[in-house]
Amino acid sequence: MKLTFRSTAIIALLYGLSVPCFSQQSGKLYQEITKMDSLYFQAQNACNLEKYASYLSEDFEFFHDKGGFTASKDDEMKGMAIFCGKEQRSRQPLRRELIKGSLEVYPMDNYGALEICKHVFYLQIKGGKEKLVGSGKMTALWKLIDNEWKLTRIISYDHQPLAEVELTDEILDRYAGNYIFPDRIVNIKKEGKLLRVTDIVNDKPVWSKELFPESENRFYLNYENVVYEFIIKGSKVVRLDIYENNKVIEKAPREN
């Protein structure tokens, strides 16, 4: 009996439905992909571009919910050169860490393996300290090419800001308002579980960033070592102090 392409596809689909495929969290394939995930992100965290490139296939593609589509290995390495450049690394050195227990591996017949995992990102501060700044999820295809595992496709998504601590809405709302600096007004407002800081000059916003809580009254940016500390007297917030590298660089009273 001669089968049409459509019939063959239907049979393959039905066969796939009849054979259960479970994620692997043990065994040889799982161990191999776990090792490759670790090596890949070690290279990224260390900005070892030569090693990083060695884990990518020649037809590599990257889909990122914030950064968009990267169409080739060459384009990915151009982006990594910026990510690992002196200016960027001096301002925002990031480290990725796999969330323990989140990595799943699915065998892909006649291809390789599918990896699904979750991870968090830390801002690295001079002196060895780190601050939590975000989380994300990743789905990746690994292919065995000439006996070496290579990444062919990555989908990186659901990136969310994540702070050292989580404060109540009541505490966050306490800091909302304007703080009067000599050269600008700094506006603070609650945004989800974070604060948002906006610099206003001549009634126009000129800069705006998220502030991540590290304690009840101290917040940090997701780059550089900058901390905003709200000074409280009694039950009132009276002042905002801004620190850079643990030194106060600016102070401003809260607008009445």
Helix-strand blueprint:
Elements lengths: L4 H14 L8 H20 L2 H6 L1 E9 L3 E3 L2 H11 L2 H6 L2 E5 L5 E5 L3 E13 L5 E16 L2 E14 L7 H6 L2 E4 L4 E7 L2 E8 L2 E10 L4 E3 L5 E8 L2 E9 L2 E7 L3
Parallel strand pairs: 1-7
Antiparallel strand pairs: 1-2, 3-5, 4-5, 5-6, 6-7, 8-9, 9-10, 10-11, 11-12, 12-13, 13-14, 14-15
Write up what this structure looks like.
This protein has 2 domains: 20-161, Nuclear Transport Factor 2, Chain: A (Roll), CATH 3.10.450; 169-253, Beta Barrel (Lipocalin), CATH 2.40.128. 25% of the residues lie in helices and 47% in strands. It has 256 residues and is of the alpha+beta class. The strands form 2 sheets. Strands 8-9-10-11-12-13-14-15 form an 8-stranded antiparallel sheet. Strands 1, 2, 3, 4, 5, 6 and 7 form a 7-stranded mixed sheet that branches. The chain starts with a helix and ends with a strand.
